[in-house]
Amino acid sequence: MVTVVITTFNRAEMLREAITSVLQQTYEGFQVVVCDNASTDYTEAVVRSFMQQDMRVKHCRRPYNLGGAKNWHHGFTDAHTDYVAWLMDDDLWYKDHLADGVTRLEQYPGAVLYACGTIRASECGNTVVHPWFLKEGDGDVVLEPTRDYISLLPHCPFVGSSVIFRRKALDAIPFWPPEISVGDWILWGLLALQGRVIYNPSVRALYHWHKGNDTNKSLTGRRCAAQNAEARRILANTALNAGILNYQDIVSFFTSEAEAAAVCRVALSLCCSGMPHEVRRAAIKALVQRPVLTAGSGKHILLRMARFGGGFAFPWFDRANQILGRWRPSGVWPVAK
Questions:
Q1: Domain boundaries, the chain
Q2: Is the torsion defined by CA of 211, 302, 258, 174 positive or negative?
Q3: Over the stretch 131-172, which tens digit does the pLDDT of each residue have?
Q4: Is 286 helix (H, G, I), strand (E, B) or coil?
Q5: SS3 for 266?
Q6: Where are the beta strands (DSSP E) in 105-255?
């Protein structure tokens, strides 16, 4: 049984299409919980019209707007089925999405999280979105926690609306992600500590990229860079403390043939305060020895100054992102569940 959590706020028409895509699934063992973040449009009327047609649809209206992160947080924890799937109100599923996901989670022993290929639809056209680690011709990719965890660090590997996970794995995570725009990325990383992650490159979800899109509004500029760096530090520190990741894994990644942009993103994040001394040294060494090619920052004057000024100037780049992005970490994590 799967609980499909649809998070929504004031997108009644898009929500109608999202619910329809769920009810058309070939896998029928699911219930739909619409987590309405105190919408002020006709969202409730849309949901009630579906409730009259299908008893599997439920409406959970928040008394006030909790913010996006708390809305999906409560939606996930309130689920009591074997699996939980997330669909944002402006996204759609192909009809085989749930069937493919549940089949793979049951097929691979120890699997806790499944994700699939996604089409990003925008005014400029459609683009297939895959994780950076996917190689041409790959079939299902199985990420083992002790072998492949660092693959989750360069950037958020999965679109939220493509993810299905085991509900019991949620109870085992050590803390809840902080309420920042990349909290879902941190959650996928915490779930990956519990077991295998399965990635199916076949496209089974459609992700709308538009001006009102939550990611489009929040993941831009210096604030985005600072929050991404914090996500990498949280996941790396947590995995190091859990024994899933070790110092040698990080050094091997920095010296591997992985794409330079992926290496530089991780190194820039881990060379800052809050990381073990030996990890910081390895990160700085990687940045000095390799071109700084991280997307959105490769030609940034602060990075060029840091490289000219020597390795130990790199940590100041992260601080500059926090200042220019008008955001800084709370300084208090892990967050109690």
A1: 2-218, 221-324
A2: negative
A3: 999 988 889 999 999 999 999 999 899 999 999 999 999 999
A4: helix
A5: helix
A6: 111-122, 125-129, 141-143, 164-166, 196-208
